[in-house]
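FYI - complex with zinc ion, inputs then prediction.
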Amino acid sequence: MTKCYLCEQGTLIRKKVPYNLYGVYVDDFDAEVCSQCGEEFFDEQTSQKITEKVKKKGLWGLSAKTKIGRVGSTLDIRFPKRLIQFLGLKKGGEVTVYPEDKKKIVIEI
Ligand SMILES: [Zn+2]
């Protein structure tokens, strides 16, 4: 039996697991799941299948780099078009912004 690559305690069991991305269910995929920590591992072939499905569902490329701009004395962040479409954002819409820590900002719609 294969030991878990992460915790090195549990053994890996093959089973189908649901895969979600950005809160959207993509599909069930074959994985090796750790009996101890629950970590899921996908092989190369499955990873390619996941990528294909993610692209088909329009979830590909939602993570992108963007620059901080300046408007008067405040700063603004431009959202990529794909993200705007995915979230259904509109000009003039209201969001709540707060730091999760010193390296992450949460924007609640
Ligand atoms: Zn583990």
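The first strand starts at residue 12 and ends at 21. Residues 4, 6-7, 9-10, 34, 36-37, 39 surround zinc ion (CB under 6 Å).
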